[in-house]
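Renewal narrative, Specific Aim 1. Our central claim is that a sequence can be written position by position from structural information alone. The example that follows is taken directly from our test logs and has not been curated for this report. It begins with the structure tokens describing the chain, in the order in which they were read.
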């Protein structure tokens, strides 16, 4: 389909808007508006253009990510990968924020590392291999 031009937004089901908002603000996202709509949804956007819609109806008692934290491997989206200009610089920045690094990988020249948000959603910071 040639009509697709880019990803418009990422939808994340979260338990608490204030907690999620504070976490993503640390990463440079800006609160746009919300809650709005029937779900309801709150919207944040990074200056790079990455847009996140928080779907505000998660079970407050849930403490795991069914796609990543259980032995059975369910189908579904497992993480978002945010491209960075420097994985080393981004890693220093994330560590300075006090956010736990859950994995680091270097593969065929690409460098990436992973964190979890307050709802255990996985975020990858990805520096592509030099071409």
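The sequence written for that structure reads:
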């Amino acid at each position: 389909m040639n009509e697709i031009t880019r990803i418009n937004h990422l939808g994340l089901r979260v338990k608490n808007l204030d907690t999620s908002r504070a976490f993503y603000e640390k990463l440079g996202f800006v609160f746009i508006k919300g809650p709005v709509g029937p779900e309801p949804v709150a919207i944040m956007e990074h200056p790079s253009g990455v847009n996140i819609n928080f779907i505000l109806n998660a079970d407050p008692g849930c403490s795991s990510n069914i796609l990543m934290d259980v032995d059975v491997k369910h189908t579904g989206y497992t993480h978002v990968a945010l491209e960075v200009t420097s994985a080393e610089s981004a890693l220093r920045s994330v560590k300075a924020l006090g956010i736990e690094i859950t994995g680091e990988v270097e593969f065929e020249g690409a460098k990436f590392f992973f964190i979890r948000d307050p709802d255990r959603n996985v975020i990858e910071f990805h520096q592509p291999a030099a071409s």
